[in-house]
Amino acid sequence: MSDSLLLAGFRAKDPQLAAAFVRRFQRSVFGIALNMVGDPGLAEDIAQQAFEHAWRRADSFDGRRGSVRTWLMRIAHNLAVDAVRIRRAVPMNSDELNRLLVTYVSDPERLALAGEGSAQLRRSLAQLPEEQARAVVMAVVHGMTAREIADAEEIPLGTAKSRIRAGMTKLHSLIRPQDNDHY
Fold it and tell me: Rounded to an integer, what distance in angstroms lies between the CA atom of residue 99 and that of residue 81?
């Protein structure tokens, strides 16, 4: 049976054609969701939502704009994107990040307890321009992506990437300047 015929049966709520429609596309829909979210349980939920959405919106399918497969994969993709956005880490409040940054670079007790390498890293971090230090801390310590940093700092993505790269490059040169002579 063609995909269009299965969709028509799905749209008409024919139990056998609806089951055949789901069987035909379930692996692809689940695969795209799993590839995007990385969590099998969440991917199953997204796949179910995709089929529910397709069932409710079957009348909106237009064969002139693409195949049934493409239409259904786009639905699954959009639902997975929404799920990823919801699961993203909440950006840290600027005041909290500033307190954390100050703690990392100026707390005498932490400096005394840390090894020389950690102290050197903190001193070097303190020498960076504030926006580079913030970007490095958000990326390295908090594991935020460049996109998340851009959103949190309300700056363009390219600027976030540049701050991370420049900060990391400068940190490298500050931490081991003597090693640079050997390269």
Answer: 33
| Residue-range domains of the chain with CATH | 3-87 (1.10.1740.10), 94-182 (1.10.10.10)
Percent of the chain topping pLDDT 90: 17
Quote the CA–CA distance of 135 and 139 in Å, as a whole number.
6
Query: What pTM did the predictor assign?
Result: 0.48
Q: Is 63 helix (H, G, I), strand (E, B) or coil?
A: helix
Taking the C-alpha atoms of 72, 87, 143 and 97 in order, what is their torsion angle to the nearest 10 degrees? Answer: 140
CA distance readout (Å), 63 to 4, 8, 18, 22, 74:
8, 12, 18, 19, 14
108-140 pLDDT tens trace? 544 454 455 566 677 888 888 989 988 888 887
How deeply is 142 buried, as exposed, middle or buried, from its count of CB atoms within 10 A (0-12, 13-18, 19+)? middle
First to last CA, the chain: 65
Average pLDDT score over residue span 21-46: 90
Residue 158 one-letter amino acid: G
Residue 113 and residue 105 in contact, taking contact as beta carbons nearer than 8 Å: no
